Hints:
The chain is mainly α. It contains eleven helices and five strands; from the N terminus they run E-E-H-H-E-H-H-H-H-H-E-E-H-H-H-H. Strand 1 and strand 2 form a beta hairpin.
Amino acid sequence: MTSTTDDVILLDDTLTETFLTDLQSRGRTEETLKCYRNSIGKLRGFLPGHRLSHDAMLQWPDALREQGYCPSTVNSAVSAANSLLAFCGKRGWQVMPSPLPETEQPELSRREYLRLLQTARILEKERAYLLVKLLGTTGLPVHLLPEVTVEAVGSGRLPACDMALCGSLKEELLAFAAREGISAGPVFVTRRGTPVGRTTVTALIQALSHDARVEPGKCTPRCLRKLYLRTQEQIQTLVSTLAQEEYEKLLRDEQQKIGW
């Protein structure tokens, strides 16, 4: 990395290629690397003299929006830049992605999620079944799929999202890997042995949409993650409500026993 001061980073070709090489060494797909390269290119084009600062990073999302980029594209570019900043040891410069308009975030219901799983089973599309189940029950961001390895699954925990796998999913993933002849490394790979990318994952899930009677726009990794987060939020609300009700019951019981 080339830097003139602690407050400015020179985003030159050397830094860009070093960053992308690091991503590649950590299992990122060619598709992902292409997206990151494109996003970093947008950032470099915005920076006078390719000099990246905290202030410039704060201004960049608005500049992208003014150029007509849609919210999801802006957030994707910001995410790539945030990864670059983390690589450079500048996490304090990272920018939070903006919430997407609701029209860009179709919601997948639990019933539709179950129909996707059922359809995948009926059509004997095991890979699609496992992807839907994995993303829907862990909330794993799709770019972390390369870290779903045979070793991680065997341990019963995904370090990528610090989450335990339910027993049935662990068994299904290991059985699938065994049938595919995968004894180590990523569970979901292409025929060439490279980790599958977002486009492939989305295509596998959306191939179920017609028979499952689910809108294709809902059959995406992002919608599965949103379903997971919404389900967790509902469970936490329920747990909190039950805890409050039990506490109030305890107080009533105590009042009846020793109240004034």
